[in-house]
């Protein structure tokens, strides 16, 4: 099997998840993060020593994660441990602030907990991504410090994000911060904390959400084309939110109100096909390294006009303390939920988790570099799949790998790619 020896190998062998941790870890100016339209956020290496390359390989979630320590946490709910990782409590609830609840993707729980941490826990800010103000088909990273900042970032963003490219804002903050990140970014963060104690001391709370992986920017552009919406005329874009589960909506720069185009289910059905290979090889769909994870309660049918609600999964003792504080302070209204409700809400993600073992097995058979994930019970999850899905996870992957020439490293062109630094500069200043 071919070996991954450099950061550029991670990109060329299609294993990059676009988290941005490499740019934060590397010396200033050594890596440039670029949004490559058909790929996602990717690192362009400008200057790295052999030792610096090795350090980045060690923290890269695209090469694998080790969650073994999480499995030993006292109080884990064993019924969901194999499929969902560490879970201490499961709640269903929503923000009590009606504006936050309405604008959030599913009840605004992440935003409400973040707001509580700013107001009541003395945290300096919330590192998160939101719609770029000047280029709304893309995301930018920012440190939110007010309720208004948080509301501006409500709603899911199904486009490339690299929250870890803003970790310097957390490390330089006057007090600990909340970090809101997708599962792969959380995995990267936890790896980086091991080698950057100064950063770790400023990580006040980590929030994540159930996520199958971000599509490339091409996904959004393709969806806009099918709707007859020119991307250069879009003033703002929402993938969901403003009601539950929300609509894909755009607003042009002509002063007219936003136009709702497709339901969340309809838009995601098209967008998800633009997820890069690495997202299909990453088994953590629920932010298992976070303190709290949130997601839609899909175990029941959503009725028309129903206000949003979230399943709130407490993963650590810190998360338990913060959530109960937010409930007691009136930021969150929630009631305990059951393990079965969690399992029924995320059937697609648990199916994907099982398929990952078969996909990795297939790639290794072909001699293609593949991540090494530990402490995630992947084989046990694969055994739970129906026979047809087991077969598909292996032989379907072999078929696609041969058709798409995964046995050869890909030359990724950075021509016309959009600089993440340029997007974030407007937020960091």
Written account of the structure:
The protein is of the alpha+beta class. Helix content is 39%, strand content 17%. It contains 20 helices and 14 strands. Strand 4 (126-131) and strand 5 form a beta hairpin. Helix 7 (109-120) packs across helix 15 (317-328) and helix 17 (347-365) crosses helix 19 (387-403). The longest helix has 19 residues, at 347-365. The chain is globular and about 55 Å long.
Characterize the main sheet: 8 strands, mixed
What value does the Rg take, in angstroms?
Answer: 20 Å
| Number of separate strands | 14
Structural class: alpha+beta
Stretches where pLDDT falls below 50 for ≥5 residues? none
Provide a concise account of the structure shown.
The chain is an alpha+beta fold and 429 residues long. It has 20 helices and 14 strands.
Can you tag this structure with a few keywords?
single chain, 429 residues, alpha+beta, three-stranded antiparallel β-sheet
Topology:
Layout: H1 7-12, H2 21-25, E1 31-36, E2 40-45, H3 50-59, H4 68-71, H5 78-84, E3 89-95, H6 98-103, H7 109-120, E4 126-131, E5 139-144, H8 147-152, H9 167-171, E6 177-180, H10 183-193, H11 197-200, E7 203-209, H12 217-226, E8 234-238, E9 247-252, E10 259-263, H13 264-271, H14 277-280, E11 292-295, E12 310-314, H15 317-328, E13 332-336, H16 339-345, H17 347-365, H18 378-383, H19 387-403, E14 418-419, H20 420-428
Parallel strand pairs: 4-6, 6-7, 7-11
Antiparallel strand pairs: 1-2, 1-14, 3-12, 3-13, 4-5, 8-9, 9-10, 11-12
Helix pairs in contact: 7-15, 17-19
């Amino acid at each position: 099997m071919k070996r991954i020896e450099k950061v550029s190998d991670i990109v060329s062998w299609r294993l990059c998840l676009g988290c941005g941790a490499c740019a934060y870890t590397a010396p200033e100016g050594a890596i440039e993060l670029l949004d490559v339209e058909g790929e996602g956020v990717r690192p362009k290496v400008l200057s790295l020593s052999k030792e610096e390359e090795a350090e980045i390989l060690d923290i890269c979630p695209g090469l694998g994660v080790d969650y073994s320590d999480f499995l030993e946490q006292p109080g884990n709910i064993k019924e969901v441990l194999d499929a969902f990782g560490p879970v201490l409590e499961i709640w269903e609830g929503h923000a009590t602030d009606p504006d936050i609840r309405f604008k959030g993707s599913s009840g605004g729980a992440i935003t409400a907990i973040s707001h509580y941490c700013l107001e009541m826990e003395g945290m300096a800010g919330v590192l998160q991504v939101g719609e770029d103000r000047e280029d709304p088909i893309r995301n930018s990273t920012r440190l939110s410090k007010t309720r208004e900042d948080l509301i501006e970032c409500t709603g899911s963003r199904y486009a490339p994000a690299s929250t870890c490219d803003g970790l310097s804002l957390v490390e330089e903050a006057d007090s600990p911060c909340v970090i809101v990140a997708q599962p792969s970014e959380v995995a990267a963060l936890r790896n980086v904390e091991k080698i950057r104690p100064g950063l770790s001391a400023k990580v006040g709370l980590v929030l994540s959400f159930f996520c199958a992986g971000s599509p490339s920017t091409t996904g959004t552009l393709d969806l806009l084309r099918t709707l007859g919406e020119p991307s250069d005329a879009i003033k703002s874009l929402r993938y969901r939110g403003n009601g539950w589960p929300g609509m894909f909506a755009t607003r042009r720069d002509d002063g007219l109100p936003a136009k709702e185009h497709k339901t969340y289910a309809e838009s995601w059905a098209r967008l998800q096909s633009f997820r890069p290979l690495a997202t299909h090889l990453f088994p953590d769909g629920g932010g298992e390294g976070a303190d709290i994870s949130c997601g839609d309660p899909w175990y029941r049918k959503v009725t028309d006009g129903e206000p949003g609600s979230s399943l709130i999964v407490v993963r650590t003792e810190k998360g338990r303390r913060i959530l109960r504080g937010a409930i007691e302070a009136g930021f969150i209204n929630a009631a305990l939920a059951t393990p079965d409700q969690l399992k029924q809400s995320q059937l697609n993600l648990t199916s994907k988790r099982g398929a990952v073992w078969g996909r990795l097995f297939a790639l290794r058979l072909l001699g293609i570099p593949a991540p090494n994930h530990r402490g995630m019970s992947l084989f046990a999850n694969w055994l739970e799949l129906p026979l047809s899905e087991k077969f598909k996870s292996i032989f379907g992957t072999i078929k696609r790998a041969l058709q798409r020439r995964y046995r050869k490293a890909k030359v990724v062109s950075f021509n016309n790619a959009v600089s993440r630094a340029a997007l974030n500069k407007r937020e960091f200043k």
